[in-house]
Amino acid sequence: MATPTEHAQKWIWFLDVVFGAVVALGIEKYEPVIRAAWLDGACSFALSLFVGISIFSFVAYDVVVYHKLAEKYPYCLTALGFVRFYLDLVMAFLLYVLLVNALQAEPDWFAILVTVSIWHVAAVAWHLIARIEHKVSGGLGRAILPHVLAIAIYWVVVFLAGAFGTKVMGLDDAGLSTYKLFLAAAMILTVSIFRWNQVFREQQA
Question: How many CA atoms lie within 13 A of 145 on its CB side?
């Protein structure tokens, strides 16, 4: 098994700075949006707030669980360790893109789901690399299956919602887009809570 080094562990400090910058930029961008939503009416304000809470919850989940997993699979000064660190930077950038897509006046549900799906794919790759680097066997399905299922659930629910909203509810394009945005945010929030709870249970086992 590769041996963690003090130098490699400093990468976590750097990533904390990146995470902090991502959150700060997101809050800065969201402040005028939520003000405008408040002036636009209760429905616009409630939807904007719900989407914002859901996406920030996902970011918080990522940051907290990242530290738990970094303790379980410490960085090492190896090629795989560097690849994993670089992948962390890519995932942090995806969180920023997710916030940019979600925290705007008219969030695009499709862009949100594409971004969060790519993040889950990157998370699967992170788990695979970490296990190879630390020569860990067993429990792989429990680590990667939730990410695969999350992607499937996102898109299946939105697809079914589209059919239901059009044929049963009779929504126009604008109403259907709002409906899908709400469901996308709700699913992301649910996945965040589920994964947060799952990882903490695994850490305590």
Answer: 5
* HSE-up (13 A, CA, CB side) for residue 1: 12
To which residue do tokens 């995806």 refer? 94
Domain that holds residue 96: 6-204
In what helix (H) or strand (E) does residue 168 lie, and over which residues does it extend?
A: none
CA terminus-to-terminus distance, the chain = 22
Is 32 a member of any domain? yes
CA distance 64 to 71: 11
pLDDT tens digits, 107-144: 999 999 999 999 999 999 999 999 998 888 877 788 89
Q: Decide: pTM greater than 0.85.
A: yes
Total domains present in the chain: 1
Give the whole-angstrom CA distance, residue 135 versus residue 1: 6
- CA pseudo-torsion sign 185, 29, 65, 94: positive
1 belongs to a structural domain: no
DSSP 131: H
